[in-house]
Design a protein that fits this description.
Elements: H1 50-80, H2 87-116, H3 122-157, H4 166-184, E1 194-196, E2 203-205, H5 212-257, H6 273-304, H7 311-334, H8 337-346, H9 373-378
Antiparallel strand pairs: 1-2
């Protein structure tokens, strides 16, 4: 079977006790109570090779273990380390919690479905599965945007910024959850619906229905959960990098006036702060794009013309989006120097590098470098 393009019914003619090939389709194993949710578009595709189901089940299982372990560790360390209980870090904890819940609810059901090669949990759990995926994905994305806005206030606005308190952090988190819940329950009330994905082993939004009322949900939801937070993240990091670069230039100019090589003792041995920051920002946005863009493309291909979607494509794109729950503990947790110190104390065997910050004037709270002592005090 080809991954993209029109289905190739001769792609494989595997055999089993029931016999594959002939007029069988990917829908044939769907249980009777789920048939009404399957779009007629999928009836043109032959059954997927069982090997693909095995690979997909293995992959989601591995990602589930990594995500649950990694995010669980982040939650434990941030909750048990007093020095990490800051307003800014509440956003990191919320991100870890959302990603933890994502894989806790996504991994096991899909492993079971891949074993049976179809959705076996019924229509209700199909809707709940898809809703949880949308909910935790939305919360994670908007939490990353909140982290970017927090760092923007600290680094760009500096002392003129309104202090970010625990009350402010909790308010931001509450707003993110309330808005996300509002969006993901809409399909239960008739604005779009949750249906099986192309390989019938997972569920998501219906992007094949051609009615514009249903299509409008995908478009509006994409604006809210993809384009708007992406714009916020890029906007914030652009001015953060710009501010840090200006700060570094002013320090070099001051050092030149004082006729010294540098105002920082270890500057010659380390990468400049703006380069570090640019790399972290680039990695954050690149991973975000890598995870969510394929799934967005699939949804938009569906509502604007589904001729290039195959069952295998849909599930791989969905898997990439879920994999973002594995990246975030690394980007937002391990890049935090105080987190690494706590990790070394509690789990020394997991630390592969020196956890002590080499430059006291710079820290990477929440994946972003703070460049002044005044800014460190507010983090």
């Amino acid at each position: 079977m080809s991954v993209m393009g029109q289905p190739s019914f001769a792609a494989w003619g595997g055999s089993s006790s029931g016999g594959f090939g002939g007029n069988l389709t990917v829908v044939d194993k769907v249980t009777p109570d789920m048939i009404h949710l399957v779009d007629s578009y999928w009836y043109q595709f032959p059954p997927m090779n069982p090997l693909w189901h095995a690979i997909l089940g293995f992959m989601i299982g591995v990602l589930g273990v990594i995500s649950i372990t990694g995010n669980g560790m982040v939650l434990y360390i941030f909750a048990s380390t007093k020095s990490l209980k800051t307003p800014s870090n509440l956003l990191v904890v919320n991100l870890a919690f959302s990603d933890f819940c994502m894989m806790s609810t996504m991994a096991f059901p899909m492993v079971v479905n891949c074993y049976y090669e179809t959705w076996v949990w019924g229509p209700l759990f199909c809707g709940l599965y898809a809703m949880f995926g949308s909910l935790f994905g939305s919360v994670s994305i908007w939490t990353m945007a909140c982290i970017a806005m927090d760092r923007y206030n600290v680094i760009v606005k500096g002392l003129s910024a309104k202090p970010f308190t625990k009350k402010s952090a909790m308010m931001w988190i509450l707003i993110v959850w309330v808005l996300s819940i509002g969006w993901v329950i809409a399909p239960f009330f008739g604005w779009n619906r949750y249906v099986p994905e192309g390989n019938m082993a997972a569920c998501g939004t219906d992007y094949l229905t051609k009615e514009w009322f249903s299509r409008s949900y995908i478009v509006v939801y994409a604006i809210f959960v993809y384009f708007l937070p992406l714009f916020v993240i890029i906007y914030c990091y652009f001015f953060i990098v710009q501010a840090v670069a200006a700060h570094e230039k002013s320090m070099r100019d001051q050092a030149k006036k004082m006729n010294v090589a540098s105002l920082r003792s270890s500057e010659a041995q380390q990468t400049s702060a703006e380069c570090k920051l640019a790399k972290i920002a680039l990695m954050t946005i690149a991973l975000w794009f890598f995870a969510w863009t394929p799934y967005l493309v699939i949804n938009f291909s569906g509502i604007f013309g589904s001729s290039k979607i195959s069952p295998l494509t849909t599930i791989w794109c969905s898997l990439f989006a879920k994999a973002n729950a594995c990246y975030n503990p690394i980007v937002y947790g391990i890049s935090h120097p105080k987190y690494r110190q706590a990790l070394e104390k509690k789990f020394p065997s997991l630390v592969c590098a020196d956890s002590t910050p080499k430059d006291d004037t710079a820290s990477t709270a929440s994946g972003v470098t703070n460049v002044t002592e005044g800014e460190k005090a507010t983090a």
